[in-house]
Amino acid sequence: MADITIDKACCKGCDICLSICPKKIFVRSKKRNDYGTNMPEAVNRDACLFCGMCERLCPDGAISVRKTEEEKEK
Ligand code: SF4
Ligand code: SF4
């Protein structure tokens, strides 16, 4: 399971994360940030490959992906 966080103070809702994740982990949620942007939400986190694409390609550096303690022990 991946611990995925999206910084709501940075995300501008460009949807790049939705399109580049090979496992389609990001979906558009109904939650809005202070700019009125509908935030992406990470679902199906078990499927994360830890490829780092979302962290590298988010233009605002809003995404952080970490392994949970449980995942590190595998
Ligand atoms: S790529 Fe970054 S800025 Fe764009 S929607 Fe995803 S989290 Fe927000
Ligand atoms: S690390 Fe890779 S598989 Fe995991 S959420 Fe980001 S783009 Fe998707």
Q: Helical percent range?
A: 10-25%
- End-to-end distance: 11 Å
Order of helices and strands: EHEEHEH
- Sheet with the most strands: spatial strand order: 1-4
Q: Return residue spans where pLDDT drops below 50 for at least 5 consecutive residues.
A: none
Task: Please indicate the percent range of residues in DSSP E strands (runs of 2 or more).
Answer: 25-35%
Calculate Rg over CA atoms.
12 Å
User: Which CATH architecture is right?
Assistant: 2-Layer Sandwich
| Structure annotation, total helices | 3
* Secondary-structure content class: alpha+beta
Q: State the domain count.
A: 1
The CATH class turns out to be Alpha Beta
Describe the 3D structure.
- This protein is α+β, with helices and mostly antiparallel strands.
- The chain has one domain (2-72): Alpha-Beta Plaits (2-Layer Sandwich).
- The protein is built from 3 helices and 4 strands, in the order E-H-E-E-H-E-H.
- It has a two-stranded antiparallel ribbon with strand order 1-4.
- It is elongated, with a radius of gyration of 12 Å.
- The site of one iron/sulfur cluster has 14 residues, from strand 1 and helix 2.
